[in-house]
Amino acid sequence: MQNRLTSLFGIDFPIIQAGMIWCSGWRLASAVSNAGGLGLIGAGSMEPEVLLEHIHKCKDATNKPFGVNIPLLYSRVDRQIEIILSEGVKIVFTSAGNPSLLTPLLKNHGVTVVHVIANVKSALKCEQSGVDAIVAEGFEAGGHNGKEETTTFTLLPLIRNATKLPLIAAGGIATGRGMLAAMALGAEGFQIGSRFVASEESSAHPDFKHKVLETGDGDTFLTMKSLMPVRLIKNSFFLKVRELEESGASPDELKQLLGKGRAKLGMFDGNTEEGELEIGQAAALIKSIKPAGEIVREMVEEFEEARKGLLEYRISNIE
Asked: pTM (2 decimals)?
């Protein structure tokens, strides 16, 4: 599985653990990195001093490459970037904003920069901004999502045709077979979120993890499209949001319902009815909570088995 991305990051497998808020702390990031993938600390839910602590602990827990995910929509980004640069973090994934805002600064400090996008226009902006790679995240993904509602397997060939940058697929991928399918459409790496939420090292609350295991097909929905689309598990909070949206509520009314800390309430504190439960459609495929290293190994093994099976199928049909 060696390719441009494994060389870029210095890892064994092109499996990237998504930097998810309230789920991606130092324990998960270091476990994925130790297993040969790339672990990411999710800074979106962290105050600067908390991010600093997680970087220090991650350094102590692994001697392998790891990175930090920075959503650009938060006010504390400048201080977080100061910490990342002062601590010598070498890989940064940016999301939810314009890639040109931070890419030049990070690149000038020798940082490898990857940006998350959901359409061709943003991919071209990434190329102009000088990022090293892009994550193409489709409609299936959990958490904040693109307004275009383009599925991962439609988005990937569109992005592959538009740019030659190394391409990471995200959204709906939770198995080795899914990785192989994404690779067939042009992906060179795979950003995995939902599957790692249900890992032992995830900082998600146990009740949220078990809620993920109970999720079936059709149990997650894209909502709050007038603000910033987000995919959630159906619960009491979701039903209140949907009722407001169907009544024609304004963005301000939705913000009032959201209040503060709704995501923390659900994913970190474990209130699975009144909290915001961000997860992707791939949750329906997840049936167990396992160590992150075991998840990585299983995905690699399934990928190789699936690739071998397709090759054998092709050869037998030719003969």
From this structure: 0.94
